[in-house]
Amino acid sequence: MAAVITVAVVDDDRMLRDGMRTWLSGREGLRLTGSTATVPELLGGHAEPPDVVLLDLLLRDGSAPEANIRALADAGCRVLVISTVPDRARIVAAISAGADGYVTKDNDLPALVAAVEEVAAGGTAVSPEMAFACAHDDRPERPRLSPRELQVLRDYASGLTLKAAARRAGITPNTAKDYLDRVKAKYRQAGRPAYTKIDLACRVREDGLGVP
Known about the structure:
Blueprint: E1 5-10, H1 14-24, E2 30-36, H2 39-44, E3 52-56, H3 65-74, E4 78-83, H4 88-97, E5 101-104, H5 109-120, E6 125-126, H6 128-135, H7 147-157, H8 162-169, H9 173-189, H10 197-206
Parallel strand pairs: 1-2, 1-3, 3-4, 4-5, 5-6
Helix pairs in contact: 3-4, 4-6, 7-8, 7-9, 7-10, 8-9
Domain Response regulatory: 6-120
Keywords: DNA-binding, Phosphoprotein
Organism: Streptantibioticus parmotrematis
């Protein structure tokens, strides 16, 4: 039997929380284990952290979205931001803080379930709004990568060997290594060094680069 994904909702809209409970009840493979208006309320009432937290971006308690995301991630939760706000800067800030995806509240249940499953599996749930925000992120701490550097980085950071990444790009392993060295140098110059494969995977996730 496949493992059940535990899900919690943090949103100060009670109607949405009630609707989410109805939506997810009886959904095979998912179990709603918490529904609160604030992050401290959720974390204080859970002995076992849920696998995935659906987090509203802007809560009435005045908490900072980035702080909420970090608190949930530190507790061992994967975080899927759900919001009515398609603001590019806020999306980028949420992903940089450690959110594992961003979807707007006008999505239907199958789309939400797919996003939850993607996040629970360790991936990133990428919506069109998130892809657009990340593609137009021009912060100085985000290096500007060439298309070929980006391709090799994505493939290598996704788990492929250097040889496999080179083969997919149609280049030699030595050339692929040159591209990765350039990527590392650019991140180092931006003040965000990436020395290992794990470091590179973190940069891909932080910058939302996992979208072709």
